[in-house]
Amino acid sequence: MDRNGESEQQLRQKQAELRERVDAIRRDFKSGLDPDFEEQAVQLENAEVLDALLKQALTELEEIEQKLRRREK
Fold first, then answer.
1. 67 exposed, middle or buried (CB, 10 Å; 0-12, 13-18, 19+)?
2. Whole-structure pTM value
């Protein structure tokens, strides 16, 4: 367990969840804009939130991967 009481299994589970989240957000960005202008407006508003969530998930993922690398040493 690390200082936060997380086991390797918990870290790996969180890592998998974060990777899935990152992939889902990236797929959403790649899907492009809807042809409907009203829907486009909603998508563009959501893009800011998705970008923030992506950055947060990538930061958490990097922290977990660092913890796992330290355990391997």
1. middle
2. 0.80
